[in-house]
């Protein structure tokens, strides 16, 4: 080959020129085509307002009864709320990314909060933790896997609270109210402070058996409790980063009080299943927001109507 090139230099140069021309021609053909395609894609994008309007036109309204909250501390979540809280994502993207197996009414997705209180006792079979705390037996394996992973990572955890029936929740509330009153608060002030962190009697997620208050064992041994400062602890940060891989979500996020009805609680985790938890974590949603998106995927637009029969205490 080398001898041939030496004997035919002109042919070699001509070949290089031809190759260069082919490359230029290819770029000239490809680039306008790519540019046109890209511009067409950009033209197809719709504004958030238009996207919301188009979605609403396709959906059938489904009215949901909610408790009559006189203080209006929270409202039923709408698609417009989800869009406003998460402007970095399109509603279409959020809806299309929902785990395919999730369906409204799934036991893992039950919402219990001041707007959606329990109207009857939850019938569950319970499992028992080593320290006597009870929880829904259906989450025993994922919970054990979470606890084992935390232990292996160097962050042993303690379940400080789990399943509570309605009667236990009422006693819990009264205890907190009395504590605040003993500190000098009026009854009204004590109730307001209690409402910020303790659910109404019929509106505690702990009554589902799917919610857990988890703290680092070292934090508990230091006689620290359910305090927002726990968020700075290494065990809390590990939980925040890994709980979703075992099916649990941090339930009450910062700056989402108007959505969940509760202040930020870095200790309160809720089981929803692995794919759902990973989705909720990835998009930084609350369970309330997720269910609005899930309803939209089913062709439904949730609307809310006060139901006077629902308990508010």
UniProtKB/TrEMBL annotation:
<feature type="domain" description="D-alanyl-D-alanine carboxypeptidase-like core">
    <location>
        <begin position="136"/>
        <end position="273"/>
    </location>
</feature>
<feature type="transmembrane region" description="Helical">
    <location>
        <begin position="12"/>
        <end position="31"/>
    </location>
</feature>
<dbReference type="InterPro" id="IPR058193">
    <property type="entry name" value="VanY/YodJ_core_dom"/>
</dbReference>
<dbReference type="GO" id="GO:0006508">
    <property type="term" value="P:proteolysis"/>
</dbReference>
<keyword id="KW-1133">Transmembrane helix</keyword>
<dbReference type="InterPro" id="IPR003709">
    <property type="entry name" value="VanY-like_core_dom"/>
</dbReference>
<keyword id="KW-0812">Transmembrane</keyword>
<dbReference type="InterPro" id="IPR052179">
    <property type="entry name" value="DD-CPase-like"/>
</dbReference>
<dbReference type="Pfam" id="PF02557">
    <property type="entry name" value="VanY"/>
</dbReference>
<keyword id="KW-0472">Membrane</keyword>
<dbReference type="GO" id="GO:0008233">
    <property type="term" value="F:peptidase activity"/>
</dbReference>
<protein>
    <submittedName>
        <fullName>M15 family metallopeptidase</fullName>
    </submittedName>
</protein>
<dbReference type="InterPro" id="IPR009045">
    <property type="entry name" value="Zn_M74/Hedgehog-like"/>
</dbReference>
